[in-house]
Recover the amino acids of this structure.
């Protein structure tokens, strides 16, 4: 999955958010220079010597054991600092994996280190982690991207591992998503076997399992002037509704969030990263912007008193473009369920994926509601996911004249419209600004989603009631451009039941 962004930058900040252009519907223009802190992790590295004794050294994050095999078996020793994994190949059959002395395993997995309320962990930072890229390839007519030579299997029986290894597969990893009740295994295809062939082989042997590629997704946004408060006026958001957030914890699946910014430092935030160790994290601007819209302080955010659980799932591909895998999305959704989150903001879109479909269905069965961007590919009748899955609320973007964003996708998966063109977000990360911050105008379906997320929460997660109150736009009744119409807030906060 990947975000779709268009950048329109003002003045000296023209180079500012190159990475933001990857998210669903973002365009950004800095308005006023207003500082963010940066915390990056160096990628791990490892070296191994395979002469009887394996020696491993890694700037790793406290994982792995050094071992080496030459003509015999040896014990590896290593040390490491930083975040990442040390992996190296020695001579002969030796493999060296750095075992970090004094490292913190949980921190490397992205657990936030909490301050009083806001926690940033290794999610904080303005330019993304330095680390390896997510390897990718194209499938499906070269339009969709997947993790290279990898397939994902869920709901298989216990014989999967033995069968896979016997047929030359490498087990990349296995995870049990307890809250969702799903066990997921990632397999690397045997050498010389394509991902499509590998998928076919596993699917034939395990016909009742969920077998698919590990699809990649992008955020949907662009960064770019109407009245500063036009968006809230368009949906009739009133001051009393800002207190609704305390009733329902909100979830965010996006890039990492920089909680150190003044506009977010006192927000009730908790973050966790779901990137594999050693993968470079995407810049934080996209997720930070969405979080600011939802829970920003200083009289700005829609629900400043809500607790926001932010799952960071975006890394960088080889071209530096933010992408997120289906497996990271599944892990993030599982974590949000453990936090009792009822309403989840998803600003990404991409191809259909069987694992994603499964975990979305499981999450909804457990009372969770997902609000997702329909994407900025400018296509008609081409469903993008997760917005197009049953029960997910697909959101398009409109401007102050209630006209749809030109780049927004169209189809029967569009449920609602919300302001998402030239929306002002103050106090955002800006490396070019004197104090590291600037106000921005943003555009894209990504930025429309928070308005629907907040309004759904204020309706107590009553989707039908929210849809019924939408302001009809375009052709009478639901249509593929505006869905049910422009979302409208309730007059008062309604209680939520899960």
């Amino acid at each position: 999955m990947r975000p779709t962004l268009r950048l329109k930058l003002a003045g000296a900040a023209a180079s500012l958010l190159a990475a933001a252009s990857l998210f669903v519907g973002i365009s950004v223009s800095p308005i006023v220079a207003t500082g963010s802190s940066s915390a990056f992790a160096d990628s791990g590295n490892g070296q191994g010597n395979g002469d009887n004794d394996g020696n491993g050294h890694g700037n790793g994050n406290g994982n792995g054991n050094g071992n080496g095999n030459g003509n015999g078996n040896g014990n590896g020793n290593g040390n490491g600092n930083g975040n990442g994994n040390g992996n190296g190949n020695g001579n002969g059959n030796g493999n060296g994996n750095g075992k970090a002395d004094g490292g913190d395993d949980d921190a490397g997995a992205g657990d936030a280190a909490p301050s009083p309320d806001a926690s940033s962990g290794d999610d904080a930072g303005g330019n993304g982690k330095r680390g390896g890229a997510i390897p990718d390839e194209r499938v499906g007519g070269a339009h969709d991207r997947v993790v290279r030579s990898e397939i994902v299997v869920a709901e298989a029986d216990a014989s999967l591992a033995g069968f896979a290894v016997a047929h030359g597969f490498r087990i990349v990893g296995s995870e049990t998503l307890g809250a969702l009740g799903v066990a997921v295994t990632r397999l690397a295809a045997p050498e010389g076997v394509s991902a499509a062939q590998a998928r076919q082989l596993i699917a034939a042997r395990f016909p009742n399992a969920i077998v698919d590629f590990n699809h990649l997704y992008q955020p949907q946004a662009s960064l770019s002037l109407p009245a500063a408060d036009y968006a809230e006026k368009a949906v009739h958001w009133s001051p009393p509704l800002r207190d609704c957030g305390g009733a329902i914890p909100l979830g965010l699946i996006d890039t990492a969030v920089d909680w150190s910014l003044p506009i977010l430092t006192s927000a009730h935030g908790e973050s966790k990263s779901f990137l594999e160790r050693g993968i470079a994290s995407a810049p934080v601007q996209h997720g930070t912007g969405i979080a600011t819209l939802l829970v920003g302080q200083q009289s700005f955010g829609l629900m400043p008193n809500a607790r926001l659980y932010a799952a960071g799932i975006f890394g960088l591909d080889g071209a530096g473009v933010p992408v997120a895998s289906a497996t990271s999305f599944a892990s993030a959704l599982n974590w949000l369920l453990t936090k009792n989150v009822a309403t989840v903001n998803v600003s990404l879109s991409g191809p259909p994926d069987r694992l994603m479909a499964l975990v979305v269905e499981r999450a909804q069965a457990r009372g969770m509601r997902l609000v997702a961007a329909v994407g900025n590919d400018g296509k008609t009748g081409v469903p993008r996911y997760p917005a197009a899955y049953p029960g997910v609320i697909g959101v398009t973007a409109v401007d102050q004249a209630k006209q749809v964003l030109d780049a927004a996708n169209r189809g029967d998966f569009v449920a609602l419209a919300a302001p998402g063109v030239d929306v002002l977000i103050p106090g955002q990360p800006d490396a070019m600004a004197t104090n590291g911050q600037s106000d921005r105008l943003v555009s894209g379906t990504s930025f429309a989603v928070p308005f629907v997320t907040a309004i759904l929460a204020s309706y107590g997660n009553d989707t039908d009631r929210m849809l019924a109150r939408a302001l009809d736009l375009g052709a009478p009744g639901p249509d593929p451009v505006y869905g049910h119409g422009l979302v409208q807030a309730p007059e008062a906060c309604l209680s939520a039941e899960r």
Summary: Confidence is low (pLDDT under 50) at residues 2-22, 25-129. The domain at 1-40+114-138+216-498 is CATH 3.40.50.200 (Rossmann fold). Residues 57 and 98 are 4 Å apart (CA to CA).
